[in-house]
Amino acid sequence: GWQGFLAYGCQSFVVVTDPKTVQVVQVLHRHQGNIVKVKWARENYHHDLGSPYSLQLVSADSNGLIVVWDVATGKPKTEIIDGTKPIQDMEWLSHQDASHDLLVALHPPYNLILWNTDTGTKLWKKSYTESLLSFSFDPFNSKNIASANLKSDSANGQDKKASTSKNLAKRMTNILVGEGPNKKSSSEDENVALNECLQLLYHRSCRHHLLLVYPREILILDLEINQTVGIIPMEKTGSPFVQSLRQRDVLLCLHENGSVTTRIRRKTNIISTPASEGHGAFDDSPPPVSMDVAYDLRCQTDSMRVTRHSQSVWYSSLPSDGEICGTDRY
After folding, report:
1. In a domain, 22, yes or no
2. Number of folded domains in the chain?
3. Could you check whether the bond before residue 109 is cis, i.e. omega within 30 degrees of 0?
4. How far apart are CA 246 and CA 201, in angstroms?
5. How far apart are CA 267 and CA 141, in angstroms?
6. According to the model, what pLDDT value does residue 79 have?
7. Residue 269 structural domain
């Protein structure tokens, strides 16, 4: 969060630590199942003595229980439950100032619910026909939401859905390089795991751009033209996770070996093509341009010694200055 604290789930406990002093600030216990999601509440809003600010976060467990915490007192403020399945994803609805207590949670297999965490009231519910895995809000337009599901299907309205099947990477690649002859490989079935979508999120610096993270590549989709505008190939270490910083057009990628790479968008990626005679050569119309997006690798941290019993699972950056904290699993 903006205050500098790091919160994470440890079995059925929520641990709040200070990364600078490596000291445990608070331990929160109310859950019976293992913690699957932890989210800090919004803090960048006006508060004064009449409307004081309270440090709070929300946690969800494998039994479907959502708890809103007052971190200072260590006591739960609200408990929410709708079903007994693990919460797939959740996000604070922070793109509005009407209320700071609105939380959107993905209750498996296909229910998206808007909660008022102050009262525990269900305000809105949307049920889909496919099993959803995660979702992401458009930071430039809160009316847009993208979701990852198990099956590929046409989306209605402004709800964009990204299939997690291995065929999506192949279809998006064909948009850039064109259709080719069908080739069957004996190792195609063995590479299914390498083509599964691990994460999707809206770009925090570029409008209409959606990032799809695969173990071996990152696809950049432009939802305004419904095309792939960039493919970032990754190294053999893979790229389980990615995050786009709010301050700059930068991608921070966490790899399976524990290393973090920094990629900056190439400024010279707009290449003008020669104007043909009768079109753009003797008039004021602009020449056609290539809008492919490319990111250059700038730096990389040393890899960690990862054993077969441990793996890097997540990392986060401090919103104020971009400092990175990572977690692993044994």
Report:
1. no
2. 1
3. yes
4. 13
5. 25
6. 94
7. 128-179+190-329
Residue 308 domain-assigned?
yes
The rounded distance, in Å, linking the Cα atoms of 202 and 187 is 32
What pTM did the predictor assign?
Answer: 0.71
- Give the H/E segment covering residue 14: strand 13-18
Q: Quick one: how far is CA 55 from the chain centroid?
A: 23
pLDDT of 32-66, one tens digit each?
999 999 999 877 666 667 666 678 899 999 999 99
- Judge contact between 317 and 252, C-beta under 8 A: yes
Report the chain's terminal Cα–Cα distance, integer Å.
Answer: 25
Q: Identify the weakest region by mean pLDDT among 19-33, 104-118, 176-190, 196-210.
A: 176-190
DSSP per-residue codes, 188-251: TGGGTGGGS--EEEE-SSSTTEEEEE-SSEEEEEETTTTEEEEEEE--TT--SEEEE-SSSSEE
Dump pLDDT digits (tens) for 280-305.
434 444 444 445 788 888 888 777 66
Helix (H, G, I), strand (E, B) or coil at 122: strand
